[in-house]
Design a protein that fits this description.
Layout lengths: L3 E3 L4 E3 L30 H12 L26 H5 L8
Antiparallel strand pairs: 1-2
Length: about 90
């Protein structure tokens, strides 16, 4: 599961590094991981944001993250996509 990168407020899956093993699904505390073909329509904007996280230069970065070959190499990143950064804080503790 080294394809899951931690942003400031959201976790992002690097699609080029994911091998579709499904190991992340049962451990996701908010049940937010879906295979691409099974993604509910209301979550489609987050799929787009997931792609942008790796392909666009985000505020505070010099270059896109790309495919660095594993999240452990980078650790938590202090950035999010503009949509995710604009969401109100989650005050539920999760």
């Amino acid at each position: 599961m080294d394809c899951i990168y931690e942003g400031e407020r959201m976790l992002y899956i690097q699609p080029d590094e994911c091998v579709d093993c499904g190991a992340c699904e049962p451990v996701c505390p908010v049940e937010a991981i879906y295979y691409e073909d099974d993604l509910p329509p209301e979550f489609a904007p987050y799929q787009e944001e997931n792609v942008l996280f790796f392909t666009e230069t985000l505020p505070g970065q010099d270059a896109p993250i790309g495919s660095p070959g594993g999240a452990a190499k980078l650790g938590p990143l202090p950035v999010d996509t503009p949509l995710v950064a604009s969401l109100p804080p989650n005050n539920t503790g999760g």
